[in-house]
Amino acid sequence: xxxxxxxxxxxxxxxxxxxxxxxxxxxxxxxxxxxxxxxxxxxxxxxxxxxxxxxxxxxxxxxxxxxxxxxxxxxxxxxxxxxxxxxxxxxxxxxxxxxxxxxxxxxxxxxxxxxxxxxxxxxxxxxxxxxxxxxxxxxxxxxxxxxxxxxxxxxxxxxxxxxxxxxxxxxxxxxxxxxxxxxxxxxxxxxxxxxxxxxxxxxxxxxxxxx
Amino acid sequence: xxxxxxxxxxxxxxxxxxxxxxxxxxxxxxxxxxxxxxxxxxxxxxxxxxxxxxxxxxxxxxxxxxxxxxxxxxxxxxxxxxxxxxxxxxxxxxxxxxxxxxxxxxxxxxxxxxxxxxxxxxxxxxxxxxxxxxxxxxxxxxxxxxxxxxxxxxxxxxxxxxxxxxxxxxxxxxxxxxxxxxxxxxxxxxxxxxxxxxxxxxxxxxxxxxxxxxxxxxxxxxxxxxxxxxxxxxxxxxxxxxxxxxxxxxxxxxxxxxxxxxxxxxxxxxxxxxxxxxxxxxxxxxxxxxxxxxxxxxxxxxxxxxxxxxxxxxxxxxxxxxxxxxxxxxxxxxxxxxxxxxxxxxxxxxxxxxxxxxxxxxxxxxxxxxxxxxxxxxxxxxxxxxxxxxxxxxxxxxxxxxxxxxxxxxxxxxxxxxxxxxxxxxxxxxxxxxxxxxxxxxxxxxxxxxxxxxxxxxxxxxxxxxxxxxxxxxxxxxxxxxxxxxxxxxxxxxxxxxxxxxxxxxxxxxxxxxxxxxxxxxxxx
Lengths: 211, 525
Prior knowledge:
Chain A: This is Dynactin subunit 5. The complex is a heterodimer of chains A (about 210) and B (about 525). Chain A is mainly beta. Chain A has one domain (about 15-55, about 75-180, about 200-210): 3 Solenoid (UDP N-Acetylglucosamine Acyltransferase, domain 1). Chain A has 2 helices and 23 strands. Chain A is globular. Chain B is of the alpha+beta class and about 525 residues long. Chain B is about 20% helix and about 15% strand. Chain B has a 5-stranded antiparallel β-sheet. A 4-stranded antiparallel β-sheet of chain B has the order 12-13-17-15, with no helix packed on it. Chain B has a two-stranded antiparallel sheet with strand order 1-2. The relative contact order of chain B is 0.13.
């Protein structure tokens, strides 16, 4: 990502967002560390003041002994899919657990068409596609959000919780409150401008509208 | 899905008379007074139950009606645990109940999932095998509220089969006294036990009764599960004996057969609630079944001991701190409804969830059918109201300071609000709720934009109407003015892409005193 960033910096020097070759829009005000360990799927928006902690990646099997497999897969910290919007002031912090006295980090995966509202703290192990995370939510370490989930604003998803597909969760700690309707994410308008994007639907238009 | 202030709900007409609905649709709004009386009243207490966001509505293509969750019938496709996402076969549901029987547990205090932790000190043993690196006793630990089974004095020797280990242990770490088999043996039970409940243990001895053990007050009363098993055995025994008594061939009166005490109805009940029962339902029942009469048969007697237990509970409630008592929601979540103190709570197996197909309540057509796999989110059939009904969305048009004037095209506007909300970090909390600049204020006029999206391939004519004067507590004295009450929405033009839409924007103005929007209706097609 870092290479794309630098190459495209010359293209749009004035705007707030740096657009990469694959269409990712990363705000200049975002705080990104460890860019080598971050993957953006394309047409993904990272807004201002987002903290992407790519430096918190999984170390080789033990901290003290340099193992023979510092492979590329093990150093992935954050991977984000396509058409995902990370709103301002979010913190994406890969989950960690203390493993035999040593802190071990695990990758954080976010799928496609995920909207993460402003001011969220995300330490989930995985967020699947078509998920809407309301503003100010906290996804505690190692929770797993499955597809088509709506997380109400201000919820705290407890650690290790698996949110089943198609459910609405909320509360502190979050519990499953209901189900999203059958029409979750279905956009009648289709390619009809950014105003018609729906929660859980295709966020391509929203991404396109971000400038 | 709209939750912030200007939102749109659709009223399903399934609750009231649909014939008047039809009449209303075909009627021209010539008599406003008459119309007012018959229009949908969003303030009626009953209307809360028929208002749904359009995402939750289905559309029956046979009846040409929208179908809300109240007027569809549901069929369970599969049961699964929300925690481990494993499908539970329906035979397991019948036998073991509707809770996950794997190693999933929820915290009884805060309902978040529990994790199995080892109590062993994390001194790293030098072997590098990841399988058995942690030994020692295990506990269930809540990472959210730090509750653990240590609080109720339970540890597990093995990390697997927590369900079985938990069933064998009482709160406090004492082993659960083996289930009393005396009643069934004294009743000369003819059929073998066929239940396989989660905590069904092979119990050779039958000496103790739970009420005699010196334990906390809740444990002195017989365990509800034990009582349930006693009752089950008792009723099964009665069924078998009445079955045997029936063999001589007596004539039955229908009244005794249908009575609540007759063996046939109890057999039906047991079939419904219990597990598989070997004995066939008797054809007739001359002798009604009696109820349980002794504690061995499952009778709960309120005697001096129970009274003392109650007194002890009350005393404990008077003396101990508030947070040592289970809250109402904790008691409702608990499997043991008699738990009063926090110490009586136990880890809860999560309730299973279902995937359901939906049928039209009127014509039985399948409206939605998800795929059978638990983790799959696709559906085989999905007839959405979104694809058959015009979608209405209301947006605040103007807060003149922040919004562009109403003359500009609506295309870019929400985008711009989005950007003003999002891109400036100095906008703190007020910017977080996008509805706040547009909230209704007294004595100000607020403009709203009603957008209709027509998913159909035919153009529709739209008539909007609002009550002449808003009634109700908040709406009194305010007016809703619709600037363009009639217009046409063109057909969905793009036939290649099902979803392209034609949009007609109409400005709807509200003279707000302190008001809520009136309801516009769609008349005719």
